Amino acid sequence: MSGLMDMPLLVFAVSFVVMALSAWIGTLLGTRRTLDADLREDFSVVQTATLTLLGLIIGFSFSMALTRYDQRKNYEEEEANAIGTEYVRAGLLPASDAAKIRELLHKYLDQRIRFYSTDQRILFYSTSNAQRLSEINSETARLQNELWAAVQAPALAQPTPISALAVWGMNDVLNTQGYTQAAWRNRIPIGAWALMGAIAVCANILVGLGAKSARSKRYLLIVLPFVVAIAFLLIADIDSPRGGIIHVSPQNLLSLVESLRVP
After folding, report:
1. 4 with 125: CB under 8 angstroms?
2. Taking a C-beta distance cutoff of 8 angstroms, is the pair 223, 229 a contact?
3. How far is CA 195 from the centre of its chain?
């Protein structure tokens, strides 16, 4: 189920088929029994309430996905700021140590850009991209250990407030990467998707059941499922860090690379 949420186009296809079948089932139920005036009035209240609830749930889910997307963007900016600050603070250490730290930061920055630029899923699961992402995470962890060791040695040799600034900056570099990982794992819960899907199915059944003519039934069988599927597609696309077409671009990290190249 969680893998499906990383394939927005597949979410669209599955949800459209399920919603269309739900509306069609509703029309079949409607043809077997005609609602009288009193019952139709009560039915309209239930149908309106269900559609309103569906709209609210979709709106809340979209807001949740957008919040998580903004969080990922903010942490990308924080990572760039932390790396850039530590690159400058490395100059507070002895020249040999500063050169080593800056060289490692260049390599670390390249790995962070690769992390943001790797698409794991578009429509189908990609084993090569998943393996590449695993290699990036392993290399990132290795560089983090080397960076910490590189800043720890001179700080222990000369424990001064100035060297403490370099240690503090390196701590920010490592922390922001952890915050980014946590943000990328922070997704809309599967339970929320299941409840939203259940409400959408009920809403489409009620719409099909309430259709008054064969012409309106055919119209509703296509329009409402399509609109709901589009909404699910957008939510899944924004919520997925690597699936679909809406991604967090490492603009700040790329800008940092360009600024570090300036002599």
Report:
1. no
2. no
3. 19
Both structure tokens of 168: 């503090």
Q: Assign residue 145 a region (left: φ > 0; alpha: ψ between -120 and 50; beta: otherwise).
A: alpha
- Phi/psi for 121 (5° steps) reads -140, 135
What are the sequence ranges of the domains in the chain? 4-261
Residue 173 contacts by C-beta under 8 Å, 6 or more apart in sequence?
Answer: 79, 82, 83, 86, 105, 108, 147
Model confidence band, residue 220 (pLDDT cutoffs 50, 70, 90): low
Half-sphere exposure of residue 229: CA atoms within 13 angstroms, side-chain side: 20
pTM: 0.83
Residue 112 tokens, joined: 């962070």
The set of residues, in sequence order, having a beta carbon less than 8 Å from that of 235 and lying 6+ positions away, is 58, 61, 62, 65, 188
CA torsion angle for 139, 67, 119, 170 (degrees, to 10)? Answer: -20
Check whether 125 has a pLDDT greater than 50: no
23-65 pLDDT, tens digit per residue, is 888 887 766 566 566 677 777 888 889 999 999 999 999 999 9
Judging by beta carbons within 10 Å of its beta carbon (0-12, 13-18, 19+), is residue 4 exposed, middle or buried? Answer: middle
- Helix, strand or coil for residue 125? strand
- Which residues partner with 125 through β-bridges? 121
Do 222 and 20 contact (CB within 8 A), yes or no?
Answer: yes
